[in-house]
Amino acid sequence: MANPLNDPLTHAQSRSDDDVILRARGVTVGFGPVLVLKDLDLDVRKREILGFVGGSGTGKSVLMRAILGLTPRRAGDIEVFGVNLRDAGPEERLAVERRWGVLFQQGALFSSLNVRQNIQVPMREHMRMSERLMDELALLKLEMVGLPRSAAEKFPSELSGGMIKRASLARSLALDPELVFLDEPTAGLDPIGAASFDALILKLRETLGLTVYMVTHDLDSLHSICDRVAVLGEKKVLRTGTIEELMRFDNAWVQSYFNGERALRRV
Ligand SMILES: Nc1ncnc2c1ncn2[C@@H]1O[C@H](COP(=O)(O)OP(=O)(O)OP(=O)(O)O)[C@@H](O)[C@H]1O
């Protein structure tokens, strides 16, 4: 019989299925002859902050893009909010997309638009609203992410790295999503900036009931805000669990990551 401790889904499956907001099964993604992900399974639960780690080039961004439908998959099913994205027609897909927000690795703000206009891009794409309402909503989103009103008319080139991350987060919150995908949100921030960004994510989860899927290399973020961490390696999710659970996982990469010299320097 398979050892349940080696099953990355054991933890998730022990809870009710209603708790799962995103379910991936057998996901396979490749480029030409190279497979990056093979038969990958993953469950993301409602209202959790799930950290996603793995060595460089293991496919963390590819998986996120496959879930978002930006990279095609060769096999497998991805179900979000109970909708299997493979079977979903354009309308149903759009309805799902309206319920999630994304913060890409470099912030990915449009450089020719100011912050207010950037935040309004998803509103224009998905909703029909008056300019006045969109302006009010943009200011509200700025406030949510701790940016001053004066940031609204600034262009990305006029913002610090931390402000760009916050403005991008504000854009990802434009449509009041239930689920947000964050690709290395604290990369490039100084430790104080990173800690305050982490605190913001935590606060948004508490106040908005968000579910957060966060790719990160930041050990401090993993320790301070993630409920569970998923480890990507060997083309699949090797294990999902709390950091304490992962620290007991007999895998060379996991051991050097969580118990290695850099990890111990945190203490
Ligand atoms: N469009 C593409 N065409 C070909 N290969 C790609 C493409 N996108 C990603 N890859 C390859 O897929 C692999 C996984 O890339 P990915 O960016 O997902 O890694 P990652 O785990 O996010 O790495 P990092 O932590 O360094 O950001 C890499 O070998 C990359 O070169």
TrEMBL record:
Lineage of the organism: Bacteria, Pseudomonadati, Pseudomonadota, Alphaproteobacteria, Hyphomicrobiales
Organism in which the protein naturally occurs: Stappia taiwanensis
Keywords: ATP-binding, Nucleotide-binding, Transport
An example molecular function term from Gene Ontology annotations: ATP binding
Signal peptide positions (record): none
Any one Pfam family match given in the protein's UniProt record, by short name: ABC_tran
UniProt keyword ATP-binding present: yes
Cross-referenced InterPro entries: AAA+_ATPase (IPR003593), ABC_transporter-like_ATP-bd (IPR003439), ABC_transporter-like_CS (IPR017871), P-loop_NTPase (IPR027417)
Family annotation (PROSITE patterns): ABC_TRANSPORTER_1 (PS00211), ABC_TRANSPORTER_2 (PS50893)
Segments forming domain ABC transporter: 22-259
Family: Belongs to the ABC transporter superfamily.
Protein name: ABC transporter ATP-binding protein
Claim: Nucleotide-binding is one of the keywords in the record: yes
Gene3D superfamilies: P-loop containing nucleotide triphosphate hydrolases (3.40.50.300)
Top-level taxon in the UniProt lineage: Bacteria
